[in-house]
C-alpha cells in the first residue's frame, strides 16, 4: 500500500555492521553522513535528535511526496527493511490478528 507507516522509525537503530560495510563499499556518504547528522536517541517512546532535541518522526530516507510513500535508498536499504514482510507488524494496516 506504500502508506509509509513501517518507516516511522529511525532505521539506523536497526542497521547492522553488514549494512554499514556495504554503504562504505558503495561510497554512500549520503547515508553515512545522515547517521552522523541525525544522531538519534531513544527517549522513552520516541526518538529525538541529540543535536536539535526535536522529534524524529520517520526515517530520513522516506519520501512523503505525492500520494504514495517511497524509500529513496531502496536499492541499498538495510537488511531489516528488506526482510520486513507487509502485514507482519501491528503497525501495518495489512496486519491481521
Ligand atoms: S508494509 Fe504495511 S506499513 Fe509498510 S507501506 Fe506497506 S502497507 Fe504500509
Ligand atoms: S531505509 Fe527505506 S525502507 Fe527502511 S525505514 Fe527508511 S525509508 Fe523505510
Number of helices: 3
In what range is the share of β-strand residues? 5-15%
From the spread of the alpha carbons, the general shape counts as: globular
Main sheet record? 3 strands, antiparallel
Query: How far is the first residue's CA from the last residue's CA?
Result: 19 Å
Bound molecules: iron/sulfur cluster
Strand order of the largest sheet: 1-2-3
* Low-pLDDT sequence parts: none
Q: Could you tell me the mean pLDDT? A: 89
Total number of beta strands: 5
> Could you give the order of the helices and strands?
HHEEEEEH
Instruction: Please identify the structural class as seen in this structure.
Output: alpha+beta
Task: List the main descriptive attributes of the protein structure presented here.
3 helices; two-stranded antiparallel ribbon; single chain; 97 residues; alpha+beta
Structural notes for this entry:
- With 97 residues, this protein is of the alpha+beta class.
- The protein has one domain (5-82).
- 24% of the residues lie in helices and 12% in strands.
- It is built from three helices and five strands; from the N terminus they run ααβββββα.
- The protein has helices spanning 17-25, 29-38, 79-82; strands spanning 40-42, 47-49, 55-56, 62-63, 70-71.
- It has a three-stranded antiparallel beta sheet with strand order 1-2-3, with no helix packed on it. Strands 4-5 form a two-stranded antiparallel ribbon.
- A hairpin with a 6-residue loop joins β4 and β5 (70-71).
- The longest helix is centred in the middle third of the chain and has 10 residues, at 29-38.
- The protein is globular and about 40 Å long.
- The two termini are 19 Å apart.
- 12% of the residues are buried.
- The model has no long low-confidence stretch (mean pLDDT 89).
Amino acid at each position: 500500500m506504500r502508506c509509509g507507516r513501517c518507516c516511522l522509525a529511525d532505521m539506523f537503530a536497526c542497521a547492522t555492521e553488514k549494512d554499514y560495510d556495504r554503504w562504505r563499499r558503495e561510497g554512500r556518504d549520503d547515508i553515512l553522513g545522515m547517521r552522523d547528522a541525525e544522531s538519534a536517541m531513544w527517549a522513552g517512546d520516541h526518538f529525538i535528535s541529540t543535536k536539535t532535541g526535536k522529534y524524529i518522526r520517520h526515517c530520513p530516507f522516506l519520501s512523503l511526496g505525492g500520494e504514495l510513500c517511497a524509500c529513496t535508498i531502496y536499492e541499498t536499504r538495510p537488511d531489516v527493511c528488506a526482510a520486513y514482510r507487509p502485514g507482519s507488524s501491528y503497525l501495518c494496516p495489512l496486519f491481521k490478528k
